[in-house]
Amino acid sequence: MLDRRLTLDSQVALRPEPFGALAYHYGNRKLIFLKNPDVVRVVQYLDDNESDACTIAEALIACDIAESRWPSFERALDALTKSEMLHEHEQITTG
Questions:
Q1: Closest-CA residue to 30 (of 76, 93, 81, 75)
Q2: Is the CB of residue 62 less than 8 Å from the CB of residue 54?
Q3: What are the beta bridge partners of residue 34?
Q4: Theoretical Cys-Cys bridge with 32: which of 4, 11, 23, 28, CB 3.0 to 4.6 Å?
C-alpha cells in the first residue's frame, strides 16, 4: 500500500479541530473524525501535492512520521479510502 498515490476526494472538506479534523464527504454525507493530528497532516500533504502525485511512503517521510508508525497510518489511510474520503490519484496523460 505504501506505493499507492492517494488524494483527497474533491467532494471532501477538512475542518481543523483541536483534536485533529473533521472530514465531511458532500457526496455520500459521511462524517469522519480524524483524531490524530499526524494523520491530518499526512492527508493534507497528499492533497496539497496532488499535482506531484507522491506515494504514501513519500508523504510519510515528508511529514517526518517514524517508520515504526507506518503500519497504523496504512490502516488509517486504507479506512479513509474505503469510506471514499481518499481515492487513487488519476494520472492525466496528454497526447
A1: 81
A2: yes
A3: 21
A4: 23
DSSP string across 12-49: EEEEEETTEEEEEETTT--EEEE--HHHHHHHHHHHHT
CATH topology of domain 6-84: Outer Surface Protein A; domain 3 (3.90.930)
Domain range list for the chain? 6-84
17-74 pLDDT, tens digit each: 999 999 999 999 999 999 999 999 999 999 887 667 789 999 999 999 999 999 999 9
Cell numbers at residue 54, please? 507522491
Read off the pTM: 0.88
Please give the pLDDT value at position 48. 87
d(CA 59, CA 22): 20
